Amino acid sequence: MSQMLTLTDSAAKRVAWIAERQAKPPILRLSVEGGGCSGFQYKFDLAEQPDSDDLISETDGVRLVVDPVSLDLVSGSVVDFVESLGGAAFRVENPNAAAGCGCGSSFGI
Length: 109
Hints:
Layout: E1 6-7, H1 9-21, E2 27-34, E3 40-46, E4 55-59, E5 62-66, H2 68-74, E6 78-84, E7 87-93, E8 99-100, E9 106-108
Parallel strand pairs: 1-6, 2-5
Antiparallel strand pairs: 2-3, 3-9, 4-5, 6-7, 8-9
């Protein structure tokens, strides 16, 4: 199966760090919800386990899981973790997004 999502090393390290502190498995769930300034917004959560229909991408033992509905909107994306003067956040580089916003957490198709 071709990997339709990529979790960068930087993002994988951050997920592992957060999961360890919360005593949870290192599984990051990316989902897409309606809302945000551009129509859709990204949501990140730690998951206890993948669902049976999730797409799973793995980097350094950390899994990124996405449900089929969200996958249609984020296929081909790269999930990164960036730290800057403005703060630290997970960022999605989404080739499907026709429009984005300054906050980086919402997008339009």
